[in-house]
Amino acid sequence: MAAYDYYQLLFIPLFTLLFLIYLFTTKNPKKSSIPTNWPIIGMLPFLFQNAHRVHEALNDVLIESGGTFEFKGPIFTNMDTIIITCDPANIDHIFVKKFSNYPKGTEFQKIFDILGDGFFRADFGLWELHRKTTLYLMRENFYSSLQKSVWEKVRTGLYPILDRFSQMGSDLDMQDVLGRFSFDVICRLLLSHDPCSLSLDMPNVPCERALNDVMGPLLSRYTVPEFAWKLQKWLNIGPERRVFEACRALDDFIYPHVFSHEENENVMFASFKKAYEDNNKNNEISRREMKDFLRDSFLNLLVAGRDSLATGLTWFFYLLSGNPHIEARVREEIEQVVLTKRGGVAAGLNKWRYFELDECDEMIYLHAVLSETMRLYPPIPMQQKVPTEPDILPGRKCRVDRDKKVVISFYSTGRMESVWGKDCLEFRPERWLEPGGRGIKQEPPSKFPIFNLGPRTCVGKKMAFIEMKMVAAFVVHHFNVRVVEDHPVLPRPAIILKAEHGLKVRLTRKQSPAALEAGGPLSVAPSGVSSRVCRLLLEGERVYDTLLYRPLSDLFWAVDGHAPHASSCWLLPLGRCIVSVHEWDSPVGPLAADLVGPFVAGLVDPLAVGRVGPLADGSSFE
């Protein structure tokens, strides 16, 4: 620990100097947003002062400097000189025209070592291997599997959570819910395993939490000398301890699935295994090398599949909440799709339903809203490239030396007046529509680089839009989502553009589901109570209320009322089963008395219902 104590003493003068500069700059604010280049420490005070709003501060600097800016960092860190740009001409030059000259670089690979040899961290031949294999996975049957995975998780996870909180009237962190949802979906899709991180009890799943916790500490490696964070890593202290714990949680989750692959062939692991073997025909591959490669491949797909969906939809619901006229148009389009599917028959429009691939393809305005959301709030707000040879960026004829870092700010590209016009800061989905609104306008990728461009264009772009449209359409069609008043919503200064304090919302049902007719697996209709229904549906070890097809995990949770004492639904425990008693047109007391009697007397045996498959009678969802 002596070495660590010495390291701390070494930085006491530095932090004292930073504090004095901070006091000076706050008392004597500059009119210009371009930071001062101080001796030795460079522009570090600028980052120190804007640590809570890095993306916005850099955006101000880039606007004033014409889209390209040279940042001078402290001479003793990994930030000595960095070219920061958001100019579409430079983006096209780096990602397309001079693609081979701009890999991510060895420093990026050191900092993000937790990602292993996955595609996020790979360059050149290894990256091509990942790309080809991922494209092979995304054949036509992949999207039918995606649809199945999404809707199964909507049914068993997302819907019960949203409905429960809409009934309780409590605040819900939509960002947390969407992160759990996307984590479960990608695991179901690639591993055929549901970790159930999204369920009514909102359990702590170490792997899912690790994905939330690890990115901040990794980003901090940029701001300290390499020897400093490596020393912390060796001593297992500070931010590096969090990286170590996150890595262990990820490995504990992934490696068992890699090992089980040998007994039960998984399509994803089998595809990557064959590709890796074909790529190393002349080299002997150890069992450990193969396991590590499969681990890295899945982890990178997990990060990509989880964060694009969760982050994109978080900002989607935030923007929709503040723009009810846009929400109304999205809802109108969704209802038109439903009406078309029904052949123009309006009956049943209120029924709880999913949305299939072909229906999502028809939601042009929803696609425009999602595109506009990601223009303003790109899930990955910036990227780093390092040239292998000296170059000149065309935007402002900026010279880039070999091994000098270039940071591309996608966040700022979407907010430049020179790129998107004077209304660049407005949330206006109409900018994405073709004349007549019948199609999506195709903007140059350098202007909208959210999914990368050139050879490294994201192969999951189609998948991302499909997932987002399925989930967005379901939620908007069934619920009103409103951000809690006075809840601060700010972009997190991190590699993934999450909301710093989450997204606290209040939910209300948009429409009540159509009343069920009497009959079905279990029906008791006392005389004079024709519209009152009692139904039970057993599926495996879970019990569902078929009115809304929700899991009933808490025996005495009132699902149809705002509180148990004012509920129009009583849950009656009978052995291992639960009977849900619904009342539609009269006080619940008389109905409960009418229905409880037969059950208690044993006239109706709930266990005789038997076990049925999901949605067996089609009464809850289409």
Q: What would the CATH topology of the domain at 130-378 and 414-509 be?
A: Cytochrome p450
Structural class: alpha+beta
Number of helices: 21
Quote the beta fraction: 5-15%
Task: Spell out the blueprint of helices and strands.
Blueprint lengths: L1 H26 L16 H6 L4 H11 L3 E5 L8 E5 L2 H10 L8 H6 L12 H14 L2 H29 L3 E2 H18 L14 H8 L1 H6 L5 H10 L3 H22 L6 H13 L7 H35 L2 H18 L15 H5 L2 H13 L5 E4 L5 E3 L4 E3 L4 E5 H4 L3 H4 L40 H18 E5 L20 E6 L24 E2 L1 E3 L2 E4 L4 E2 L17 E6 L2 E6 L5 H13 L22
Parallel strand pairs: 2-7
Antiparallel strand pairs: 1-2, 3-9, 4-7, 5-6, 8-9, 10-15, 11-12, 12-13, 14-15
Helix pairs in contact: 6-13, 7-8, 7-20, 8-14, 9-12, 11-12, 12-14, 13-14, 14-17, 14-20, 15-17
Search tags:
disordered C terminus; 3-stranded antiparallel beta sheet; globular; 4-stranded mixed beta sheet; heme binding; Cytochrome p450; monooxygenase; alpha+beta; disordered N terminus; oxidoreductase activity, acting on paired donors, with incorporation or reduction of molecular oxygen; 622 residues
Concise description?
The chain has 622 residues and is of the alpha+beta class.
